[in-house]
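Technical annex B. To support the medicinal chemistry partners, we prepared a structural model of the target in complex with inositol-(1,3,4,5)-tetrakisphosphate, based solely on the information shown next.
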Amino acid sequence: MCKMANRSMTNKIKDLPWYHPNVDRHTAESLLLQNGVDGTYMLRDSSKLGDYALSVRCDQAVKHFPLTWTGTVFKFGHGEFSSVDELLHHFTNKPLIGSESGQMTLLNYPYPRNIEEPNVYDTIRVHAEFSTASENLKGPEFSINSKEGYLTKLGGLFKTWRIRWFVLQKNELRYFKDKFDKHPIRALDLHECTECERDSSIKGKFNVFRLGFAWRTFYMYSSTDQESNDWVQLINWKLRRIREAGYLPRNS
Ligand code: 4IP
């Protein structure tokens, strides 16, 4: 195999939208566990120089399969592929692959590399919400970045501070009495949110930020400055996208 063919193979790999050149095994596991569903997969560089690894979310775990370019063929498990196209064809036809345990894994949803990400987030904290329908990855329902965690919030009528579990997904912020509760106390639609800013007006409370709606302003804080900044930045990133899509909150 001449050098030119080798380069063209490498370029083809680099062009795969689900090839992640900067993702290691640990990061792949984090991303796929946090954001993937059964059958979400990505290609990355193996720790063995020059080799690749296919990481696949399989139920509640991530499996890693080595993929080696010998100079003439790709070796993948017991199979061999003479070109990237052949490999791609194999993958795009959703093959089943077997792990050492004999368990079969379906390659269903490529984990895309080129998803818009806010600058403030690094790889692990950027989340993608995957729909089970892979075509939705490109549609309006596909939104990246979800976040969850405990925040202490101020009550509306009675000004009591309560620790609540907050979940930000797509354009909705929900809070629950506790982490494993099924039903939220409230779901806030960010389309209606007018602002989200750090707030230092409340005496004796640190890391506070506020979330404005025409009908109420919510105050909440986290345990660290960084964590509050993360919430504010992520919510504002979502608000910008909502505005860019031409949506203005009512009565604002
Ligand atoms: C409650 O005070 C809690 O702070 C509620 O918070 C809050 O509801 C209530 O405000 C407030 O009166 P007490 O627990 O002392 O009764 P949570 O729902 O998190 O338990 P919000 O609306 O903040 O969720 P009102 O305005 O909803 O009554």
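Notes passed to the chemistry partners:
The helical segments are 3-15, 25-35, 84-92, 225-244.
Residues 117-143 have pLDDT under 50 and may be disordered.
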